[in-house]
Amino acid sequence: MAGELNGQGGTRSDAESAGIRLRERELEIESARHAVSRLARAHMTGGAATGELLLYSGPGGMGKTSVLDEVRALARGEESCTVLFARGGERQRTEPFHVLRQLLMPVLSRLTQTERDEVFGNWYGIVGPAVGLTPPSGEVERIDPQGVRDGLDYVLTQLAPRRAPLVMVVDDLHWADRESLTWLASFAVRSRELPVLVVLAYRNEFAEDTDGLVRQIQQMATRHHELHTLGPESVADLVRSAFGDKADDAFCRQVWAVTAGTPYDTVALLRDVRDQGIEPVEESTPRLRDLAAAARGQTRQFWLEKLGRVTLQFAWAAALLGTDIKEEVAAAISTQGPEQAAGSVRELVRHRVLTTQPNGRLEFVHPLIGTSIYQSIPDAMKTAMHGIAASVIEDAGGGLVLASRHLLETHPEGDDQMVRKLRRAAVEHLRIGAPDAAQRCLKRALAEPPSDEVRAVVLYELGCSALLTDPAATVNQLRLALDDEYGLSPSMRVDAVFRLSEVLAHSSDLEAAAALCAEEAERADPGPDRLRLQIAVFMYQTLAREESDGPGRSRRLRQLPLTPATRDAKHALHALQAWDLTLRGVSAAEAIEQAEAALVQGRLPAGLAWTGLTWGLELPALVGLTFAYTDELARAERLFSDAILEFEKAGWSGAHRGFAYFLMGLTRFRRGLLLEAEDFLRRGLRLSERIAPGIPLEWDIVGVLADTLLARGRADDAWELVQKYGFAPPGHRTAMVLPDASTLYGKLLLARGDRLGAIAVFTQVGAALDARGWHNTVWAPWAGHLAEAIAPDEPERARELAREAVNRARVFGSPSAVGVALRLEAAVSEGPRAVELLLDAVGYLGQSPASYEHAYALVDLGSALRRVGRIPDAAEYLYQGMELAQHCGADGLVARSRRELAVAGLRPNRLRTLSKDALTQPEWEVAELAVRGVPPQRIAEELSLPLSLVHRRLAAVHRKAGTGPEGLAAALGLHEGGGAPQD
User: Fold this and answer.
1) Are 777 and 800 in contact (CB under 8 A)?
2) Contact at 8 Å (CB) between 462 and 470?
3) Which end of the chain is more exposed for a tag (fewer CB within 10 A), N or C?
4) Is the CA virtual torsion 137, 139, 140, 141 positive or negative?
5) How far apart are CA 387 and CA 382, in angstroms?
6) Under a CB-based contact definition with an 8 Å cutoff, are residues 885 and 903 in contact?
7) Which residues does residue 355 pair with via DSSP β-bridges, in sequence order?
8) What is the pTM of this model?
């Protein structure tokens, strides 16, 4: 059954009510009829109903509302259509999500519980408060506006097929609140993918006031109709529809002349002519110009004479409320009792100022009337009435989200209670994902002004309100709060410093972030706050691209006392020490031990939560990255998966979720799941581009994505990517946790045959990292690649470099570190020595979850064996490497292994896809023995298997479990004396 699910009705002009078809509007109406019919027909026949976006624009009074009324009538006439309607309000532009609440609340509030679960999925806590279905939750301090928009996209994607075909109509788009307009601009791109007809109308003269969002919508429109003035014939039709044939031609012509063919002015003039009993003949035409001028002026005196003082006061209250007028609220604002208010409503309806809607609400007959009445309110009374409106709305249960726009219109008086209300309103706005609205409230609170003791706190809250959206504003406001004469409490001051340092760090100024925290730490008294700042200093210095004394910093970090620290600080210190050990390449086992100490039962503690505000996201990221670079990839994936879920739950869909995708992509790359890595990284890159070009997140993602493309054999694509994004270190941007950017760039140059360029890059980065004491050959394998680059000219030096890299890898001790270093040494060695090194490399990498590196070593080993004439052995390793490379998505490596087999005179077999979802029973058998400490040779004897097959099965076990030998038992749930899980 067709129906209109909206909180407001429409207002049809006299012309439309009388059934008059204006000649100048036939094309626009026919366009809407075609769109509605096409959508309904496709739905009824079971076809693919794709959406359209229709726009109607023009100056005020051109009849846009009447056209939209006709569109809604057409849609209601189709049996299957669901119609949603909303209208922007001139006085409600500062009320966040005002338009979306009108549009979506009626249909969403009628969903059954089952439907609600399906439509919202995991987004109810984010979208529900924004559209008014549920009050803001206190669980999340602030919600990212992008998260709300993403949630709305999801909800509409789920809702549209269930209420298809869906017709969404928004009038006065130019007055839509920014939160609603921003979403509508982004949804316009997707609307064609859904069974949704979106119809929007706006005034041209206001389009530029919307920061280009209306222009963005225009670019997506299927059809855009600009409404123009009516011609003499259409105006004559309107006149005769009102007065019949007694209206003569001269009178009709003069009506057109004095109104300039504007539909609104024409209808208003004809009402006044009828109300005053003027005959529609030529003799009456001299009076038309004066009537038209009075109707356009609509001054306070005009309305007072027309309505009377009591009725006008109610009209003023209604004008304050805008598009959502409840009679009892307007009565309270105008201090009228129920009977007096009812009388005022009757008069306003009689004079065609207000109209009553089916839901009992009131609405202005035309937005221009509401604007005129609002402008007629004396300034002092307007201010007082806004203050009353705020109290009335709050007392009626509307909450500060709805009341705050009225608080903004009051005059500053130094009222402490007003400051408290505005601060509470800001909190509610942040909890629904409307930081701009929160900032308006806090700026108004500063203008009140607050007491000296509270001023710094308000500045601090204002700075924090922009954390997710406007870093520059955050920096300015937090600096003002810190410089305030009366200042913040010691703990709040430390928090303000930390918030400010975060913004500086995320803007690539890590040195300034570290200096800020160091300066404040000197001022702070000994205790948890001071320790928090000291840890922050170490963190930013570690993440910075350059530092003067890396070894000294590491030493001071190890000496930082833990005894007076809170539990949160201890977890933070363990996280930082784990990453420091990882970068220095000291001991993978020690790094894992520190990372585990930062966790509680394998999960991040509350103090290190991804969405926590005590430390930020860097420290939990460093815990996960420690696992990623010590072959504990399954643990890293669990942490990064938690990050994605936590950010989604909190509605942090901007840089935070993009960063989580980056971390997951990096971990999948390390694991050798290259297709999955590319997918996560490209998703993160899309989020990064949506935020702003050139941010550090983009730098991180592009580097790892280029490395992934190289591993897939797509060197040209990788080069094109880095050229597009200007990835050419050393750059002005700081990559906070990226595997060394210069090493990645050197690998790209080497892949393109630019040995001299690669040598320069690897030499420079090697010197810089050695100076910092960072010797991790997994995070920055510059030495092995430099050896490859110089081998044709300096073979002996190349071998020395490669051997040094192997020694460093052995110190660190993770299987992938040693295995990759051995493979790179083999690349600059020859004959039996290369074979020997690669056999060791394959053995080590078989104990790691690094599938791509294992596949690379297998193919290298097969190639080396072919070159020394050991064809049967070569075939075995080439087949293994080819199969594993296929599993990884390393197409270039697959092609290379096929070429090697062809050169050896062998026919490549058909590739099989390895399952990563579960171990086979034979793999469980070797896994169980390995966990018990049985060496591979004895496993082979006990199971009567060739040793090479045991190594292959063990490699599959480590790869699928996502861990090296240290974490195998925990990853598989095997214990000494235990066995494989039984079905």
Assistant:
1) no
2) no
3) C
4) positive
5) 9
6) no
7) 363
8) 0.80
